[in-house]
Specification:
Elements lengths: L1 H10 L6 H7 L10 H5 L7 H15 L5 H21 L9 H18 L4 H24 L3 H28 L27 H21 L3 H20 L3 H22 L5 H25 L1 H10 L6 H19 L9 H7 L16 H38 L4 H18 L8 H16 L6 H9 L1
Helix pairs in contact: 4-5, 4-7, 4-8, 5-7, 6-7, 6-16, 7-15, 7-18, 8-9, 8-10, 9-10, 9-11, 9-17, 9-18, 11-12, 11-17, 12-13, 14-16, 16-17, 17-18
Pfam family, one: Wzy_C
Organism: Planktothrix serta PCC 8927
Keywords: Membrane, Transmembrane, Transmembrane helix
């Protein structure tokens, strides 16, 4: 058991001595080269608050503006991160095992771009990926401050509440579909699916998953009757709006998110339980959630019909479309299994027509796992799975630490972990994950987990190594 535990800690980089890696990294030595200039700069004395303002603008405007403006804001975030990094003290630069795997994934994507059969198209996707990863680096640095973290999450939740309220208004007033979102031959052909400001119900569902997770956490973090009432309102409104998108992938993600959050919450609270409830709280709680979901499926006709369509196979036109796309994408992967065709939807749109079945055009692989594999090959997929393993392990380690301390900031960590689970569930059957309104939220959840990282003290690490 000890050997297995040691192997697991090495695989998840749990005992990685970051300072040793920094001392031998040529890239890392670039940090702080302009540190002397920063000491005399009035503007850079406000580096973290201004960085927080930038990322707040990104997430505050994302649901309401086009992708071009989001791209400009991401470039601004990248420039600010670079400026902070070059002028920072090397000892204070935020770097975690998660950063290391993210950097490795970026390197794989870079090689895939260089070897792509459509290099210029792949370069476009590589630039977008680079901007997302730099946003992650900036957020993981800025959100280390509990105060900034709480303020930022509050602003995001208020933004999501506006989006959800408008979605509920669409439900009550009725709204026409902007695309064929429901099988026209099914009983749900006249179904109203809300899309709010995002113009697509599946995209709205992907956007609201993090809002549901963080609003659940806010109920336990915020103090006072009014803040808790606001948190409860957010939970109900965000969840209701997500359900009314009738996005089957979104529903899968919501169920997984709620179950993951319930498990983590019961673990957190179990330290105060009696021996009986410590043993039975989890199975009884999960059983209750399962019964509630079954009642919803059995006795709410729109929900029942929509869930039944998941298991209709090719009998549902949406399912049939995805299956045909998946088959074509698998053929693409077979032809370039090692490093794929390069990142981005532009590269995908150049190659996919050579493999697609007649009448089944697609802008993506409709599955995150397939999309990553077709873009960066088996090597990229392996790195992505490693990133997930390291991220979840770091989240669990820090959650245990905060539980022992009784620090309520751990609830944000629960939300981040459970939201990642939900977004992965949604991503198995859709690729709204790649739209900037959702992709930025994915990296926000990973950045939240990375922001809790506590490196081992250098002296203590040296002593352990000597022993």
């Amino acid at each position: 058991m000890t050997t297995l535990n040691t192997v697991w800690q090495q695989f998840t980089l749990q005992n990685l001595l970051i300072y040793q890696w920094r001392n031998t990294s040529i890239l890392y030595r670039l940090t702080g080269v302009l540190h002397q200039w920063r000491q005399g700069s009035w503007l850079l004395q406000w580096g973290e608050p201004l960085g927080a303002l930038l990322i707040t603008i990104v997430f505050g405007l994302a649901p309401f503006v086009g992708t071009a403006l989001i791209g400009v804001l991401l470039i601004a975030c990248a420039a600010w991160w670079l400026l902070l990094t070059l002028t920072d003290e090397p000892s204070q630069t935020a770097f975690t095992p998660i950063h290391l795997i993210v950097l490795l994934y970026w390197g794989i994507a870079t090689i895939a771009t260089a070897l792509s059969p459509v290099k210029m198209a792949a370069l476009s996707g590589w630039i977008k990926l680079t901007l997302y990863l730099i946003l992650f680096a900036l957020m993981s640095r800025i959100l280390r401050s509990p105060k900034i973290r709480s303020i930022f999450i509050t602003i995001f939740l208020l933004t999501a509440l506006i989006v959800s309220v408008y979605g509920l208004r669409q439900w009550f007033s009725g709204v026409e579909a902007l695309a064929t979102w429901v099988d026209p031959t099914s009983p749900q052909s006249k179904l109203t699916r809300v899309y709010s400001y995002l113009d697509n119900p599946n995209l709205l569902a992907g956007y609201l998953l993090p809002a549901v997770g963080l609003s659940l956490a806010s109920f336990f973090v915020w103090r006072g009757i009014l803040p808790k009432a606001l948190a409860l309102t957010m939970i109900v409104v965000n969840s209701s709006c997500l359900v009314l998108t009738f996005s089957r992938g979104g529903w899968i993600g919501l169920v997984l998110l709620i179950f993951a959050f319930a498990i983590l919450l019961l673990y957190w609270l179990s330290i105060q339980f009696s021996p009986f409830w410590r043993q039975w709280a989890l199975p009884l709680g999960l059983t209750g959630l399962t019964v509630f979901l079954l009642f919803a499926v059995l006795f709410v006709p729109p929900v029942r019909d929509r869930v039944a369509s998941i298991f209709a196979g090719r009998g549902d036109s949406s399912n049939n479309f995805r299956i045909n796309v998946w088959m074509s994408v698998i053929e693409m992967i077979k032809d370039r299994p090692i490093l794929g065709i390069g990142p981005g939807n532009v590269a995908f749109n150049k190659i996919y027509p050579l493999y697609m079945q007649p009448r089944y055009t697609a802008l993506s692989a409709y599955s995150v796992i397939l999309e990553i594999t077709v873009e960066t090959g088996i090597i990229g997929l392996s790195c992505f799975l490693w990133l997930l393993t390291v991220t979840f392990n770091q989240g669990w380690v820090q959650l245990k630490r905060l539980r022992e301390l009784g620090n309520s900031q751990g609830f944000w960590l629960m939300a981040a972990i459970s939201t990642l689970v939900g977004m992965l569930g949604h991503g198995l059957v859709d690729t709204v994950w790649y739209r900037p309104q959702v992709n930025t939220l994915w990296w926000l959840m990973i950045a939240l987990i990375a922001s809790y990282y506590q490196p081992k003290p250098q002296i203590l690490s040296d002593e352990v190594q000597t022993d």
